[in-house]
Amino acid sequence: MSERLLVLVRHGQSEWNLKNLFTGWKDPDLTEQGIAEAKEAGRKLKAQELVFDVAFTSVLTRAQHTLDLILTELGQTGLPTSKDLALNERDYGDLSGLNKDDARKKWGEDQVHVWRRSYDVPPPGGESLKDTLARALPYYVQEILPGVLNGKRTLVAAHGNSLRALIMVLEKLSPEGILKRELATGVPIIYRLNADSTVASKLDLAG
Ligand SMILES: O=C(O)[C@H](O)COP(=O)(O)O
């Protein structure tokens, strides 16, 4: 029986994470720390003796660069990889490029938290987590999940909110449950699925 392996990893720290700017669909690369985090993610996956058959990432540089660094650490460069906008970060709309602390000063702590973590309240001109889920979930169901269920060991390098959307489905979290869920940069989460696509086991490689 194949193992139905699905590993999710958020990209390493980006230049705009470091500057504390809303990023969304803007396309900064990784910082030195982000590069180190991605390499460390690769080393952690290697220590778990994981080998992959396919990879998926977004069309944004920070996720693709993270994937490249992980695959290099694993000695698996050249792995068949699909890149799709469906896995992009949530579009932060008019907030993109603004400093998160400046936004809190302007709109208040609570409003900014609602924009960043609520399920269905979009930031001005941008996507809510629900909107993000509406484009990430069909891609997961149609492009990623069938391979996983057929034994293709799968690595997904994407973004805080596109992965929160998938995690909400995988872990059957409520809108209240996902509100509190934070994803650290460069920390792989290893899922093994049952044949019915529910989660059989989960291992978070934090720390
Ligand atoms: O797009 C961004 O700004 C970050 O990647 C994620 O932002 P968040 O922590 O506000 O969801």
Describe the model.
The protein has 207 residues and is an alpha/beta fold. The protein has a single domain, classed as Rossmann fold. The protein is 43% helix and 14% strand. It has 8 helices and 6 strands, in the order βααβαβαααβααββ. The chain has helices at 15-18, 32-47, 61-74, 100-107, 109-117, 129-149, 160-170, 175-179, and strands at 5-10, 54-57, 81-83, 154-158, 189-193, 199-204. The protein has a 6-stranded mixed β-sheet. The chain is globular and about 50 Å long. The protein starts with a strand and ends with a strand. 38% of the residues are buried. Bound molecules: 3-phosphoglyceric acid. 3-phosphoglyceric acid is lined by residues 22-24, 89, 92, 116, 159-161.
The backbone outline, from C-alpha atoms, is: globular
What percent of residues are in strands?
Answer: 5-15%
Distance between the termini: 31 Å
Tell me the name of the CATH class.
Alpha Beta
Cofactors and ligands present?
3-phosphoglyceric acid
Secondary-structure class: alpha/beta
Strand line-up of the largest beta sheet: 3-2-4-1-5-6
Order of helices and strands: EHHEHEHHHEHHEE
Count up the domains.
1
Binned, the helix content reads: 40-55%
CATH topology: Rossmann fold
Radius of gyration: 16 Å
CATH 2nd-level architecture: 3-Layer(aba) Sandwich
Biggest sheet features: 6 strands, mixed
Number of helices: 8
Instruction: Find the count of extended strands (DSSP E, 2+ residues).
Output: 6
Low-confidence stretches: none
Per CATH, the superfamily is Phosphoglycerate mutase-like
Mean pLDDT score: 97
